[in-house]
Design goal:
Largest sheet: 2 strands, antiparallel
Number of strands: 2
Distance between the termini: 41 Å
Helix content: over 70%
Structural class: mainly alpha
CATH topology of the largest domain: Four Helix Bundle (Hemerythrin (Met), subunit A)
Order of helices and strands: HHHHHHHHEEHHHH
Oligomer: single chain
Length: 411
């Protein structure tokens, strides 16, 4: 089935496909629909917030109402899919999914039109938000837009910047990223303070020329911040590559498929066991075991898939390896569900904990489904079952790893 530009929508499509193939139950599909509905609500809210930072250009005035309408249309598609559970009519499931895909593709088309328009504007900063503020300020100086639009955008940007700065030390990072961050921490905080000072001065400026001067100071600090972020990226990318499970070719970390043979790439966690071995997200030692199982299994599954394809092992040996991996996943699943929820949590912590638990459940479930699909290869020899199953298992492992990363950020 055709996929979209959204990983979240694609995940629902895959879940619906697995449901029609009998690989997941109705409860799993219903959960996926609920999660996607929440995602669309968040996307619509985020878009509404971002409209404050956009100029009222002809393209924006044309596309904005379409985007709002298509978010609503997408949610209507989800509601139509949910009707399937009431009357068991597969047409409702298929039609609702197609309706959702069409709506989101419309949204993607409209947002791309806005992006292309923005690319045609002058660029004063590598930061999209700073660039927008400078464009608004330039428009206000030239009398093309009211000064209130800039004032409103500055107020929203100050609040967003303050939230980001407050949580900067607690952001999840790998060990290499954390080391680079500590080396530059004082300068980063100084730059963030300089940016906030420039935004606040622009917000309270008596006239547009003063606001422009204050923004220019904030823009200079922003460019320095981007220079440091580039160093973060270069240090991380230069130190990490992933070997293909088929041919062994080293690939850039962002590759999902091997550049040489096209095989599915294993996730980073299997190469970073030392970075995922000290996890604590209110679960103490128990969740560390789940992480270790995930790290171990990604390596075993990738190696076994490669070996059976090049006939280094036979299908019976491959089957035994899959059974071993599946047993560990099921054991980890049982252990995870028995983990107690701490009593002394505030509402924010409890909400974050529930999100983490749902992500962990989804990851473990996807690993299980992936291994079960790989078992079909033993029966029919269809390489699609092997590759798609491995992709699903590795995708689930990535979700488990995401909780581990978040856990490090909570410590």
């Amino acid at each position: 089935m055709e996929l979209t530009a959204s990983p979240q929508i694609n995940e629902l499509i895959r879940t619906a496909n697995r449901f029609t193939e009998g690989l997941v139950d109705a409860v799993t599909l219903r959960e996926a629909i609920t999660v996607t509905d929440t995602f669309l609500q968040q996307m619509a809210m985020l878009y509404q917030q971002q409209t404050r930072f956009r100029e009222r250009t002809p393209t924006f005035l044309q596309q904005a109402p379409i985007i709002v309408a298509q978010f609503a249309e997408g949610r209507a598609g989800l509601q139509q899919m949910a009707v399937f559970f009431e009357n068991d009519d597969p047409y409702q499931l298929i039609r609702g999914l197609e309706r959702l895909k069409a709506a989101f593709n419309w949204v993607a088309t409209c947002l791309e039109a806005l992006r292309l328009e923005e690319e045609s504007f002058p660029r004063w900063s590598r930061s999209p938000y700073m660039n927008t503020l400078l464009r608004l300020a330039a428009g206000a100086r030239n009398g093309l837009i009211p000064a209130d639009a800039l004032h409103d955008a500055l107020g929203g940007m100050i609040a967003q910047h303050q939230r980001f700065a407050a949580g900067m030390d607690q952001m999840a990072r790998t060990r290499r990223e954390a080391a680079t961050y500590q080396e530059n921490r004082l300068e980063l905080h100084a730059l963030m303070e300089q940016i906030e000072r420039g935004l606040v001065e622009a917000y309270h400026a008596p006239n547009i020329d003063s606001a422009w001067a204050a923004l220019s100071g904030a823009q200079a600090a922003t460019e320095r911040l981007y220079d440091i972020q580039e160093r973060f990226k270069e240090a991380e990318e230069s130190a990490r590559t992933r070997p293909c499970f088929r041919c062994g070719t080293a690939n850039p970390t962002q590759n999902k498929h091997c550049a040489k043979c096209g095989g599915v790439m294993p996730p980073m966690p299997m190469l970073e066991e030392e970075e995922t071995s000290t996890v604590d997200f209110h679960y103490e030692d128990s969740i560390r075991a789940v992480g270790h199982v995930q790290t171990e299994l990604t390596g075993k599954l990738s190696e076994a898939a490669r070996d059976v394809q090049v006939r280094r092992i036979d299908k019976e040996t491959f089957r035994r390896k899959l059974e071993e991996c599946l047993g560990k996943v099921l054991h980890g699943k049982r252990e995870f569900e028995l983990l107690p929820v701490p009593n002394k949590l505030n509402d924010t912590e409890r909400e974050a904990l529930e999100v983490a638990r749902e992500t962990m459940r989804a990851g473990i479930r996807e690993m299980q489904e992936g291994i079960e699909k790989m078992r079909l290869y033993v029966v029919d020899g269809n390489p699609a079952h092997l590759e798609h199953g491995l992709e699903s298992a590795l995708s689930g492992a990535d979700k488990v790893h995401a909780v581990q990363v978040a856990a490090r950020g909570e410590k």
